Every structure is written in C-alpha cells, then in structure tokens.
Amino acid sequence: MFLLVPIVIISIFSFSAKQGLVDISASWVLDNYIRAFDPVYLSVFFKSMGIAGLTTSICFLIGFPLAIGIASAPKSWKPILLMIVVLPFWVNLLIRTYALIAVFRTRGFFNFSLEWVANLLGIPFEPLILLYNDAAVILGLVYIHLPFMILPLYAGFEGFNKSLLEAASDLGARQFKIMTAVVLPIMAPSIISGCILVFIPALGSFLTPELLGGPSSQMIANVIERQFLAANDWPFGSALSMTLIYLTFGALALRYFWLRRRYFGSKENRP
Amino acid sequence: MALCCTIVFLYAPIIVLVIFSFNDSRRNVTWHGFTFKYYEKALQNNNLIEAFFNSLSIAFFNTLFSLILGTLTALLLWRFRFSYKSVYEGIILVPIIIPEICIGIALLVFFKLCGWPNDLPWPLNLSKITCAHILFSFPFVAVIIRARLATFNLAQEEAALDLGANHKQIFKNVLFPHLKPALVVSSLLAFTLSLDDFVITFFMSGPETTTVPLKIYSMVRFSVTPEVNAASTILLLITIALAAIAIWIQRSWVQEIEKP
Predict the structure, then answer these.
(1) Would you place residue A31 in the very low, low, confident or very high pLDDT band (cuts 50, 70, 90)?
(2) Is the ipTM of this complex over 0.85?
(3) Count of beta carbons in the 10 Å neighbourhood of residue A52
(4) Which residues of chain B have a CB within 8 Å of the CB of A84?
(5) Does residue A266 have a pLDDT over 70?
(6) What is the least distance, in Å, from the CA of A271 to any CA of chain B?
(7) Chain A neighbors of B195, CB-CB under 8 A
(8) Structural domain boundaries, residue A201
(9) Residue A151 domain-assigned (yes or no)
C-alpha cells in the first residue's frame, strides 16, 4: 500500500503543469501557444538557444583538452584533479554567481588588477564594463556548467584505447587527421552527453541572466518568471514553460535517435 | 597549462570571495586588514538567522522524507516487475531533467490550485518549500539507492530465509547494512540540494519563509558588501563539509566493492 504513495505523488506533480494550463483558461485553446510564437518571444527563444549553444561550444573547447589532460595524468593524480574539477559543483550556484559579480563588476578585482598593470606601464586606464551584457551571461554559464562537460568527456577518454593513437600515427596520419578520423568518432557519444548536460541547464537557466545580464539579455526563464510573478499571466507563462520543456525533451530525443542510428548503423555495416 | 588556467578560472572568484569576507573595508576592493567584523554583523542579522533556521529545518525534513520516499521507490523498482515499469522509471527522472524553473512554476500553480494555506504556524509554514524540495531530491536518492541495490547478492537473502529469518529480520539485518553507505551518501546529497536550492524555493516562498539563498539573493541585488561575503562563506563551508563527508564515505564504499 505505501509503495503506491510515491507513484501517486509523482503523477499529481507531473500533471500539475498541464492542469494549471487547463483549469485557468478552462478550455483547450491554443491562443497561448500561438502567442508564444509571436516574434518578440520567438526572438527570446532563439536568443536563449544561441546563448546556450555558445556556452556549450565554449565549455567544449575548454573541457576537451582538459579532459584529455586529466585522463592522461599519472594515476595517483587523477582523483585529485577530478576532485578539483567537481568541487565547485557543490558550491551554491548563487554564491558562485555572486563571486563572479564581485570579480568582474566595474569597480571589481578584475578591473582593479588591470588598472594596477596599466599604472605600472604608464597607460591611461578606463575601467571596462564587463557585467550586465550577453558576454557576462555566457561567461557565468560557462563558469557554472564546465564540470558537466568535463566529467562525461573524462569518462569517455578513460575508456579510450590509446594504442589506436599509436596505430594511426604508425600508419602515417598527422595530428589533425588522428583527431578528426580516430578520436572524435570514438568520443562522439561522450561529447554528445556532455553537450546535452550543458545545453539543457543552460537553456533553462534563470539566476545567471537575472544577476549577470542586463535588461536586453533576458533569457526564456526570466520571461517565464515575469509572466508568473509580475505580469500575472499564468496561462501564457505555462505555455512558454511547456515550450521550454518540449525543447528540452527535443534535445534529449535528438541524442537518443542519434545514438540509436549510430548503434544500428554500425551493426548493419558489419559483414 | 590549460589545466592550471581552468583551475584558476574555477576557483579564483570563490577564493577571492572568501578572503574578502575578512576584509575590513566597506568598499570591498582593496585590502584594509583582517577582521571578523562582518561575520559578527551577519550573525547579528536577525533576518539572516531566521533564514538560516528555516533552511536547516527544510533541509532536515527534506532529507528525512526524500530518504524514505527514495528508498521505497528504489526497492519497488528493484524488487517488483509491473506493467509500465519503464514509464514509471522515466517519470521519476523527470524532475532531474526538466529545467528547474518549469518545476518551480508547475508547483506554484499546483499549490495555488489546491488552495494550500499560507499562514500556518511554524514547521508547517515551510511545508510548501519542503514538499518542493522533496520532489526534486528524492529522485537522486532513488538513483543512488538503486545503484547500491544492484550490487546486492540475492543469495544472501535466500541464505537468510533458509536460516529461518522472516522478512522484517532480513530487511533489518541483511539489506539495511548493505544499503547503509548509500543511505548516508544520499541523505547528505538531499541535505545539500535542499540547502542550496534557489530557483524552486524562489517560487514557493512567502514573506515569512525566506531561506539563506533567498536572503543572499536579496542582499546581492541590494549591494555587494563584505557581509554578503561572510554569509556566503558560512553557507559554502557547510556545503563543502557535507560534500567532503559524502565523498569520503563513497570512497570507502568503492574500496569495499573492489576488495573481493
């Protein structure tokens, strides 16, 4: 009997979003969804996807060499290095964002050190405005999501057979060729996992654009929040957040189909 | 080299934050000498103390209930076959996958529709936040317990049955000791998740029910002062201590598996 309780609780919770949509508007209208595809909101969606995409690519560019570095480190070093990468993940999101604000604000430590260097060199210095723009949001997102990218990549490299590299270079492949023809195809599943793990939370992030972004760098989560708390338009907010959920599941589905095609494809190719 | 740069990038802001919580200056940029002044100030801030106790009690109840719920779910999924089991497994993972903000607003709507009363006496006024926290932390508990259950040797249970133990005794003397490290790790995880959550709590809280992250958020929006640094450092230390315990236990667990 008590084993049924979690099922009931989850089913209530998992349907509550839809119930809210129906109960408030009391009819199955698509108006809210149509409004969600209004150019204004569509541009917010595209902007959020762009920011999340850029974050993912930057995380990948930083995380890839780092994961190789950790995986090829001496064995006694590995747990320590991994620990160093993972530890910030346990630190509160808010505190990390706040730390970024303290470092990068106009009168913060970054500008302060730049000013110090400039004074040493005798160059006139203007403090840079680093916060409250899109670049700051992307910086914050990269800062927060980097461990999510490094861990799956590291796991992938751990299972990587290093004699393949030797074989490729014995056969006369150059570094770049080895990378594109050997390493990337084998690593593709973990790369995709890492990208998904960064992209999904980055897409739905709320706190980072709220604190680091300016008025023009609102992401979709901020728009949803405003629909609920400020504009008090709950059905429309629900429609927007359902769209966000669909996007999330879309990203997951893409990964699933890609993996399945790859899996079956390799089976068929075998003689 | 790249590794060093990244580590600096990851840690420098946090370390600067901690160091400058001891700084004896309001402007927070230049170093003016070591002081505990802002810790005292933070500890005398009644709102902050209240938020801290709210956070701790939410985290406590969340840990308790999500541990029970998560363990039951894991046992259910491990022990029984039933129709739509894979669907159920998928549904459990939903709170982990979908964006936090969607959970937040879904719960907001849900509680509004139930007409959940807002002005209850003390532990109950936190019930909304606690329920929300249980919802997103018990899947993590279930996943961890399930991984541990997968290493359980069923022959042990049969042996216990053969030796005349009843189901209660088996659970107490055979299964529970096996699950203990996983229970400790997942309860620490649930505690930290609850202590750290901002987005979902943001939608659940009322004027009477702030938690530490919410309080810090409102302080950050107001201004950047050493007091915020001090409050953040306290929260940071608690989380890191919990994480360290969890990792330490997990390591002994891994060694135990690798031994035979």
Answers:
(1) low
(2) no
(3) 25
(4) 7, 10-11
(5) no
(6) 33
(7) 92
(8) 50-218
(9) yes
Q: Please indicate if any CB of chain A lies within 8 Å of the CB of B48.
A: no
At A162, list the tokens.
Answer: 């290093």
Q: Is residue A259 part of a domain?
A: no
CATH topology of domain B38-258: MetI-like fold (1.10.3720)
Q: What does the domain layout of chain B look like in residue ranges? A: 38-258
| Chain A (74-93) residues lying within 8 Å, Cβ to Cβ, of chain B | 81, 83-85, 87-88, 90-93
pLDDT tens-digit readout, A227-252: 777 766 666 777 777 778 778 888 88
Q: Is residue A143 part of a domain?
A: yes
Q: What's the CATH code of the domain at A120?
A: 1.10.3720.10
- Which residue numbers in chain B have pLDDT < 70? 1-3, 24-33, 113-124, 207, 223-224, 253-260
Number of domains present in the structure of chain A: 1
Q: Which of residues 231-270 of A touch B (CB under 8 A)?
A: 234, 237-238, 241-242, 244-245, 248-249, 252
User: CB atoms < 10 A from the CB of A76, how many?
Assistant: 7
| Beta-carbon separation of B16 and A100 below 8 A | no
Could you give the residue ranges of the DSSP H alpha helices within A72-203? 78-90, 93-104, 109-121, 134-158, 163-170, 175-178, 184-203
Kindly report, residue by residue over A45-89, the tens digit of the pLDDT. Answer: 888 888 899 999 999 988 888 888 888 877 788 777 877 777 777
Which position has the higher pLDDT, A102 or A45? A45
Is residue A153 included in any domain, yes or no? yes
Q: Does B20 touch chain A (CB under 8 A)?
A: yes
Contact A102, B13 (CB under 8 A): yes
**Residues B125, B129, B135, B140, CA torsion sign:** negative
CB nearest to B72's CB, from A3, A96, A242: A3
Query: Is the Cβ of A100 closer than 8 Å to some Cβ of chain B?
Result: yes
